[in-house]
Amino acid sequence: MCEKDFVVSGIHIGEHSFKPENVMLEIKERCVDSGLNFVTIRTRNIPVPKHYFIEWAKYLAENKIYFTFLYTTQNAPKGMQSQFDAATIAEMKRIAGAYFVGDILGELGSSLACKWQGYASKEALPQNFKRLTEAKLNYINSIKHYIDIDKELGIDNVLTVEATALSKYNLEAGTSIPMLELMCGNPEILVSSLRGTARAYGTGLWGTYIAHEWYGGMRHDDLLKQKRLLLAYRYAYISGTNIVCLESGDESLESYGYSYPAQHNYCRQYQETVRDFAAFTKLDTRPKGGPKVKVAFVQGNLDAWGSWGGSSLWNQFNKEEWGHHTPEYAWRILEELGNKRNWYDIANYGDNDLSATPAHGMYDVIPAESSFEAMSQYDYLIFVGWNTMTEDMYHHLEKYVSHGGTLFMLASHLNTDDRRNGKINLIREGAIESLFGCKLEDRGFRTNAGVKFNKNSLKENLMYPGTLNYVCDPIYSHGYANYANVALEGGVAAARLSESFVENGDFTDLPVALVENKLGKGTAILLATLEHAGSGAIYPLYRAVVREIVASSHRASPIRVYGSDRVRFAVYEGDIIYLLNTDYDVDANVVIEKHGETIKETLEPCELKRVASTNNL
């Protein structure tokens, strides 16, 4: 029998108004009476008499409700570092124990790294950074200022509500439980990033802050926005979240020119969704440990892509080299996952179309700085975005592959320079035969050639277009790009650059585009381009390899789920499968094959369904 996971769900007090004398009544009416078990109290910049904190803590603990506070340091009353003092924290901890989860810092990445120059709430940041390392350290030090205040007061857990993909830097700074502000950007990418980062840092818990009033859509009277709220809750649940908090909408709607009180039908929909979700989580026995994940995308060292905004990296305004460019454009690959490849895509292989999702339905995004132990949780690692390579990272990747992992990256990910407009300096001066079985010369060459692939990969179930040894057209040429010169040293050419329908030589005279190398029990794959993956000339080739790796992971899995690509799914311990139909309007059909058993399911619009083996039903 699998151990039941920890899941709590509740509401946020203080989004539109905050009066300390009304908080107890809000807790009762909005949380206790609705069967919820979590509350966040946002104190804003209003001084709160200390006796209120003690009264709230006592009442919440008596009703078995977990609670946190928000913006107690960032928006502290004038002349104060925090709403709290050490004695108050000690008393709350004594009264409430584990029910007092901690203090939350809000929107660090979006405030200090991702937004536009004109935001009034901007903290003044230096505008003279030359290197990404400087910018990252400045970001971390800015966060540590608030963390240190909380720690000195005796707060055990400093949480973050993050609207971006930068949670790894928050954890590096010393926060302990990451939460995601859902619907700010692509939630499937950001949930994967939060979960992968939490696993890499061993946080144990992670949460979802559902800011649906503000970021679920700008029209409160829109039916799709109302359905989107339901899907947001259900997607967060199957993704493994432990803490779910509704930011606002249940007590009133006060945005985009609308003003609706709690009694309005639009607010009642929020209330019903929260109440029904909390009841469901208490009844469902979701296994502990989160969804099983086999494929991880790697967020590189010093990568500053935040997923939304995009004005500048690390808030370095008005400097084009710090704006979003080809490293950041590469993240679009994750926007494609969840969708099948088009029917006319001739590089989609297999007995069934498994191209939409990796094995077990979900992927994680993990930091490149992860330990070998964190990396080894995954069968596949795929680099995306910016990376500044270090010797420690390189060593971890060698160890990961030698123990059976499959690694895919670009030559540009081996760059050791941390300047946005710097010259590429390959690690070990391009002598990477220990990992990729080749040597690279970073001076390289520029070409608009296409590629021809070997048919057989060193990796079983990986299917390339078999074009190299035959008369055929080169493919995936989309403009001029820079490639490194490759000298094979034990690795093999999985693809070569070509500009001809018929080759004159024996193919070994063609420049190498893709290298595969066996190392121990695993396989390392390198696209030998010095461009970043988001380059218009490189992206189609990068995309083709990535999507085949993703599909091959699903192809090799003992559990396969196929049919409608509107269905998201997750596999938990005991082969428990959660299915979610993300289509607003029509039923979705899927087939599940697992361990010789075939199950067919039909899901109604927005339906969440748990499927166990028929032997366990």
Keywords:
Rossmann fold, 617 residues, alpha/beta, 3 domains, eight-stranded parallel β-barrel, 23% strand, TIM Barrel, 26 strands
SSE diagram, text form:
Layout: E1 8-13, H1 23-32, E2 38-42, H2 50-62, E3 66-70, H3 86-96, E4 100-106, H4 108-114, H5 132-153, E5 158-162, H6 167-173, E6 177-182, H7 187-201, E7 207-210, H8 212-215, H9 223-238, E8 243-246, E9 252-253, E10 260-261, H10 265-283, E11 295-299, H11 326-329, H12 332-336, E12 363-367, H13 372-375, E13 380-384, H14 391-402, E14 406-410, H15 433-436, E15 438-447, E16 450-453, E17 481-488, E18 492-498, E19 512-519, E20 522-527, H16 539-555, E21 559-563, E22 567-572, E23 576-581, E24 588-594, E25 597-603, E26 608-611
Parallel strand pairs: 1-2, 1-8, 2-3, 3-4, 4-5, 5-6, 6-7, 7-8, 11-12, 11-13, 13-14, 14-20
Antiparallel strand pairs: 9-10, 15-17, 16-18, 18-19, 19-20, 21-24, 22-23, 23-26, 24-25
Helix pairs in contact: 2-3, 5-6, 9-10
